[in-house]
């Protein structure tokens, strides 16, 4: 016999309770881009559970090592778990060899996990960083576990709205200032069009041999391209 569940609604027609089975999702707009001298990563900060925004200032830029970070999209739980596993493997590698892990090594471990468990996971990541062997690198690992090395990678639900802007404005070998403005504008456009993206813009800059520099762009500092 079928079981009927009753849902309560408020005066605006929204459900009062969220189904337990609805995962916390990072929604999302994420981007990583190489520039002359380093690599820059960025993301919005909205996570949601069903129709509700569960966190408007989430951090989707996750440390793997001091010089390698990932941008997460998909299920928050899945991507956090994978990032923790990769960070553990690379920390163990550094302890055993005394060498700093390479960015391509981190990307290979992410790819292996995402492909091996592609039926169980909802996870897409961008791996970015700098190492002394290959310099600045960006790897895109979408749903399914493929891995692509690119100068620029975007992901998440907001990415579908910004390909035209990227095609018109991206150029290889940008300066750091040009890259920062390009990424800020790109994320602002995605956040203005995608209902699953929003909050603040988080940026991280990784230069050769230096720790990451992080920045938050919020409020009136977020560029606007149309009237509300």
UniProtKB/TrEMBL annotation:
One of its GO terms (biological process) is proteolysis involved in protein catabolic process. InterPro entries: Ntn_hydrolases_N (IPR029055), Pept_T1A_subB (IPR000243), Proteasome_sua/b (IPR001353), Proteasome_suB-type (IPR023333). GO terms for molecular function: threonine-type endopeptidase activity. It is an enzyme of class 3 (hydrolase). Keywords: Cytoplasm, Hydrolase, Nucleus, Protease, Proteasome, Threonine protease, Zymogen. It comes from Triatoma dimidiata (Kissing bug). It catalyses: Cleavage of peptide bonds with very broad specificity. Its EC number is 3.4.25.1. It is found in: Nucleus. One of its GO terms (cellular component) is nucleus. It comes from the Eukaryota. The 26S proteasome consists of a 20S proteasome core and two 19S regulatory subunits. The 20S proteasome core is composed of 28 subunits that are arranged in four stacked rings, resulting in a barrel-shaped structure. The two end rings are each formed by seven alpha subunits, and the two central rings are each formed by seven beta subunits. The catalytic chamber with the active sites is on the inside of the barrel. This is proteasome endopeptidase complex. PANTHER family: ATP-DEPENDENT PROTEASE SUBUNIT HSLV, METALLOPROTEASE TLDD. The active site is at 28 (nucleophile). The lineage of its organism: Eukaryota, Metazoa, Ecdysozoa, Arthropoda, Hexapoda. Pfam families: Proteasome.
